[in-house]
Amino acid sequence: MGFEVALLKAEREEVLGLEDVVALLQARGEEEAELFRVADGYRRRYVGDEVHLRGLVEFSNWCARRCRYCGLRAPNRRLVRYRMSVEETVLAARRAAELGIRTVVLQSGEDPYFTVRRLAELVSAIKEYADVAITLSVGERSREEYRILRDAGADRYLLKYETADPGLYAGLHPDMRYERRLECLRDLREVGFQVGSGCMVGLPGQTVEMLARDILLLRDLDVDMVGIGPFLPHPDTPLGSYPAGSAEMTLRMVALARIVTRQAHIPATTALATADPLGREKAFAAGANVVMPNLTPLRYRKHYSIYPDKRCLSEEVERWLPALRSYLEASGRRVAMGYGHSLKRRNGTVEEST
Ligand code: 5AD
Question: Which residue range(s) make up the domain with 261?
Fold first, then answer.
């Protein structure tokens, strides 16, 4: 009953409430297939058939934080730490551009070596030598620092809220505050970034109602980009013996994220592809329109161990990209050629879609 009413609302593009989202997240079997069909319709209408590539460069795995789920956490002594040089990072960005990947995502732990000055220099160097849009994913900083990074030429910023439940958030992040996280997201928007956020699915103690609130927060934040992946236990963390989040629930979250955000760019995440070998393809059919090939040099990649057995640990993108292109074309989609900026209206102007 709840499911049918909620699905009808979604089909009619009516605003979903908390109970609607809870009902849709619990869909199984035939109902789940209907949810994915509706989400795929939103995807086609609001973002079209193009799939955007974002080349991920994990340039440092040093981290000052102690997030209880993450393998990069500061107390993890078993991790071999690395930092890529500016030259190595610029080379990775140039390789992206040569492959037709027009966005580079620079991700690291919260590494104090990378002061805002060093980061700004890195951004300018990449912009000088490679024709790519830049997305930063380097954690919490002050508004002034965000402004400097924006002025240096960075286009977008990813900062997940991880969970919209303040109690769960507090338990997972011994040195961080939920309110501060949201403040950072507002600051990022104010200094002019296209902003991405999102959460993990299946965290210990997380309920369906909490997941529904994660979805509603995406709508409230009016994000340009959404990242949703399953929690995957890392053995060298305090949460190492908890069960992994379900790939099925993650796919339903992706579908709901598409329905409530409409135009946001949503990747088929590596975490999902890790939890389910067909996760990427399933996500493309349930609302996703982005994929993030890993461009971190192989000798570093195995050390960027946020969770274990990450997909593509040894895959080189040169092999993988042609296969992706044929898969997408066979399913009526195609790889985008443009930068893939936000499709949302900002300050009275529409950002280019190509
Ligand atoms: N399982 C799944 N995702 C994780 N992340 C960090 N640790 C894990 C884990 N154990 C995700 C977080 C973070 C992103 C960089 O990686 O969502 O924002």
Answer: 17-334
pLDDT tens by residue, 4-46? 999 999 999 999 999 999 999 999 999 999 999 999 999 999 9
60: alpha, beta or left? (left if phi > 0; alpha if psi -120 to 50)? beta
Ligand 1: lining residues by beta carbon, under 6 Å: 69-70, 160, 162, 200, 229, 231-232, 234, 271, 306-307
Amino acid letter at 247?
A: A
DSSP code of 294?
A: B
Residue 344, domain member (yes or no)? no
> What is the full DSSP assignment across 35-62?
HHHHHHHHHHHHH-SEEEE-EEEEEE--
Token readout for 134 is: 């830049």
CATH code at 38?
A: 3.20.20.70
Select from 70, 140, 292 the residue to mutate for testing ligand 1; criterion: most ligand atoms less than 8 Å from CB: 70
Total count of domains within the chain: 1
Kindly report the pTM of this predicted structure.
0.96
Contact 104, 69 (CB under 8 A): no
**Given the CA of residue 307, which atom of ligand 1 is nearest to it?**
10
| Ligand 1 atom 7: residue of nearest CA | 70
Whether 162 is in a domain gets the answer yes
